[in-house]
Amino acid sequence: MSFSAEVRDELARCEPKCEYCDLATLAALVRVCGTLSFAGPGRYRLQIATETGAVARTMIGLTHKILKLKTEFTVRKSVLHKVRNYLIALPDQPDLGKALVLLGILDRHGALVRGVPHHVVARDCCRLAYIRGALIAGGFVADPKGDFHLEIAVQGEEFARGLAGLIGELGINARVNPRRASFAVYIKSADDIKKLLTLAGATRCVAEIEEARAVKSVKNEVNRRVNAELANQTRSAGAAQRQMELIGELEHLGLREGLPQALEDFCLLREANPDLSLRDLGQLADPPLSKSALYHRVLRLEKMVEGARGR
Q: Is 198 helix (H, G, I), strand (E, B) or coil?
């Protein structure tokens, strides 16, 4: 089961907070993944096609519970993709038109409602239930082991912006992005995704996100330290090579003989250990020397070479 399917399944099992929350959830399900057909004046047929069992289960259960309407249920299996496809249909029947008005799909004059129906989301708990229904119907949540991304695919820009506005009222930054024939309401922030899923009721999936974030944090810290160590080694190797070149130039200029003992000791140490950093080189000195002490000896040698060049 994909992580998106886990989220949908957990959200589909959430209990309503008030008597109208189930209506809000059903309204969002129908609006996001339903197709409405007009069979004549006052005659309709509603179909919901989905590959997610949670959507089919929730749709049928709430339709019978709230609307008391007859449903037709068909399960088809794709030979190509080897997945089940569930088709729930509400055929034309006497109370279907009233139900569509109640769900906010049609207004009282029979016209399509393009945005989020205000009467369905009048209460705070119902707003969350509506968002939950949209997530169950068309939500995608990327596996938290990869990039953090949540989106809900919907039809109609006005509805997409209305849904993003509902999410925004929760203090969560949701954006709208046009697709080929639809719109995506999406969230990229891991903290915002966690907050939305927590409020919607997917606490088990939020725990998985937290665990994935912790693992990512450890991996990133390890990578940072490894990269820093590699960079230090590269710098140390480059510095050691320049010091070997400096010693060679001292000999070329005839400055090696007569060097103070401290500088000669450094030259001998470096020649014997051409790959070590100054810190490690200092540990081999007798007595041991700090990195700073050896660096000052390098500076003295550089000044001697510069002075000899200037003569």
A: helix
Contact 284, 275 (CB under 8 A): no
AA identity, residue 232: N
Instruction: Name every residue whose Cβ is closer than 8 Å to that of residue 219 and which is 6 or more positions away in sequence.
Output: none
How much of the chain exceeds pLDDT 70, in percent? 97
Q: Domains in the chain, start-ordered, CATH in brackets?
A: 3-201 (3.10.28.10), 216-310 (no CATH)
Contacts of 261 (CB under 8 A, 6+ apart): none
CA 245, chain centre distance (Å): 50
Four-CA torsion 89, 36, 135, 3, nearest 10 degrees: 50
Kindly report the three-state secondary structure assignment for every residue of 49-98.
EECCHHHHHHHHHHHHHHHCCCCEEEEEECCCCCCEEEEEEECCCCCHHH
In angstroms, the CA 156 to CA 163 distance is: 11
Convert the pLDDT of each residue in 196-234 to its tens digit: 999 999 999 988 888 887 887 788 778 888 877 777 766
